[in-house]
């Protein structure tokens, strides 16, 4: 049995799309305000272009760790992967102790011999991962 947890590339596309929509509205508002004031020059247009690239870029970068780092449960092991190919760390499910939220966007999985920090994992994926780990390790888990 092989189960993989983390976001896929579609979340980056969604974040980019949302960022571009927000950006469009911000650019229109800023552009109109410059036109009304009559003070728009080449430097301000250039600044507007840079600002319009900033918001979508930040959204995409915030989701990127969940796309490039994944967690896989396979053959009785919890495997932390980079680009779904390269093993960052691996622990037996039998060594799983607990899972906690670390900071605002991290899920930390604790094992007897180490830990795995999973950044920017979607909430539903994190719940599924933690639930599966508790079930497979024979421990009792409550969402509370």
**How many E-type strands?**
7
What's the CATH H-level homologous superfamily of the largest domain? Pleckstrin-homology domain (PH domain)/Phosphotyrosine-binding domain (PTB)
Helix content: 40-55%
Q: How would a textbook summarize the main sheet?
A: 4 strands, antiparallel
- Mean pLDDT score: 82
CATH class of the largest domain: Mainly Beta
Radius of gyration: 21 Å
What structural category characterises the helix and strand content?
alpha+beta
CATH architecture heading of the largest domain: Roll
List the main descriptive attributes of the protein structure presented here:
alpha+beta; 2 domains
Structure description:
This protein has 144 residues and is an alpha+beta fold. It contains three helices and seven strands. The strands form two sheets. The chain has a four-stranded antiparallel β-sheet with strand order 1-2-3-4. The chain has a three-stranded antiparallel β-sheet with strand order 5-6-7, with helices on one face. The two termini are 28 Å apart.
Report a brief summary of the structure.
The chain has helices spanning 9-37, 42-68, 123-137, and strands at 2-5, 69-74, 77-82, 86-92, 96-102, 106-111, 114-119. It has 144 residues and is an alpha+beta fold. It has two domains: 7-66; 68-137, Pleckstrin-homology domain (PH domain)/Phosphotyrosine-binding domain (PTB) (PH-domain like).
């Amino acid at each position: 049995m092989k189960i993989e947890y983390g976001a896929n590339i579609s979340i980056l596309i969604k974040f980019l799309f949302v960022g571009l929509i927000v950006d469009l509205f911000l650019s229109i508002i800023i552009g109109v305000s410059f036109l009304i004031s009559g003070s728009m020059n080449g430097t301000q247009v250039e600044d507007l272009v840079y600002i319009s690239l900033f918001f979508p870029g930040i959204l995409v970068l915030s989701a990127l760790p969940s796309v490039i780092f994944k967690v896989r449960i396979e053959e009785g092991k919890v495997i932390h992967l980079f680009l779904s190919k390269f093993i960052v760390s691996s622990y037996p499910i039998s060594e799983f102790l607990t899972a906690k939220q670390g900071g605002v966007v991290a899920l930390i999985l604790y094992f007897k011999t180490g830990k795995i920090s999973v950044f920017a994992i979607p909430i539903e994926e994190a719940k599924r991962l933690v639930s599966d780990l508790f079930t497979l390790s024979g421990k009792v888990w409550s969402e509370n």
